[in-house]
Amino acid sequence: MEDPVNRYRRTAALGLIVVVGTAGLAACGANSADDSGDGGKTIALLLPETKTTRYEAFDKPLFEAKVKELCDDCTVNYLNADQDASKQQQQAQSAITDGASVLVLDPVDGKAATGIVTSAQSSDVPVIAYDRFIENADYYISFNNERVGEMQGEALVEATGDSGDILMLNGAPTDPNAGQFKKGAHNVLDDSGLNILAEYDNPDWSPDNAQQFTSSQLNNIDPAQLAGVYAANDGQAGGVFAALKAAGVTEFPPITGQDAELAAIQRIISDQQYMTVYKPIKTEAERAAELAVDLINGDDPSDTTDFEGVPSYILEPISVTKDNVKDTVVADGFYSVDDICTTEYADACTAVGLQ
């Protein structure tokens, strides 16, 4: 597979910033960092886990590449918490102690991360809440997460004909985005004709947990009578698919997802998953990098909107089914046709017009 950074440099991703209002910026002048101190121009990038493939495969390299492009003498200190909030707090404190100029923080636990924000700001280090909201952060960059859940719910209603029994698998309760996805989905599903047989909040977004939950539910119901499955992301969708396959299912009910993982795109074109939500990570990662470099250089942006009192950039997600794979993730260079259309998926690719 072509390196994601090179692929993104070759082809720009789509992503529209939704400006939902105009907000005055918090006074950040005191937080603007310079190149003094032991850390020099250091940006700490703190990501939450590795089970979701996007972080290592896309967010990290894209962010690092953009920083390198914008700032020759900037260094990115990358830290991954492996879904451990205590570990992330220790990593953040070490980064501050080592002289980081800016923290770009995707929190394991949004509430616990407020302590990181307080500690950083007391050291005049601004915090950019990346992808997941943190109260009182200096800036926030993410997608319209409630809309993500609504898209998933709408797709499931359409695919099922708005009737039948479904399972619902949400994200980690400690992830602030998961609550927004869940709310958006319930906005649609609760007013639909679908019946939620069982609902599960996955404590760490684990595909293995999703598979185990689904398998346990299939012990009580006939898999053939399952109308569909709401899975909050593609990792969980993969776990659901594995459980259904192990139960002998060959014609799969509609399964939702999120993140446009390669395996999910391949399942979608093969009628093994109905849809995913594509969030142009290039736009998000590069805007975060630009903002971090601006703050290091003492420049405050003026094009933000307000989200719960924090100056923010809110980006639009995109629903992807087999009918628009070519016009979305392929057109944007997120994946090439060769990435998707391996030997196993050659026939499916031909059927949807990718070959």
CATH architecture verdict of the largest domain: 3-Layer(aba) Sandwich
| Uncertain regions spanning at least 5 consecutive residues | 4-39
> What name does CATH use for the topology of the largest domain?
Rossmann fold
Strand content: 15-25%
Biggest sheet statistics: 8 strands, mixed
What is the CA-atom radius of gyration, in angstroms? 21 Å
CATH class bucket of the largest domain:
Alpha Beta
How many strand units? 13
The CATH homologous superfamily of the largest domain is termed: Response regulator
Order of helices and strands: HEEHEHEHEEHEHEHEHHEHEEEHHH
Mean pLDDT: 90
Main location: other
Keywords: Signal
Subcellular location: Cell envelope
Protein name: Sugar ABC transporter substrate-binding protein
Textual characterization of the structure:
The protein is an alpha/beta fold and 355 residues long. The protein folds into two domains: 4-143 and 279-316, 3-Layer(aba) Sandwich (Rossmann fold); 145-258, Response regulator (Rossmann fold). 40% of the residues lie in helices and 18% in strands. The protein has 13 helices and 13 strands. The strands form three sheets. Strands 1, 2, 3, 4, 5, 6, 11 and 12 form an eight-stranded mixed β-sheet that branches. Strand 7, helix 6 and strand 8 (194-201) form a beta-alpha-beta unit. The longest helix has 17 residues, at 54-70. The protein is globular, with a radius of gyration of 21 Å. The model is unreliable at 4-39 (pLDDT under 50).
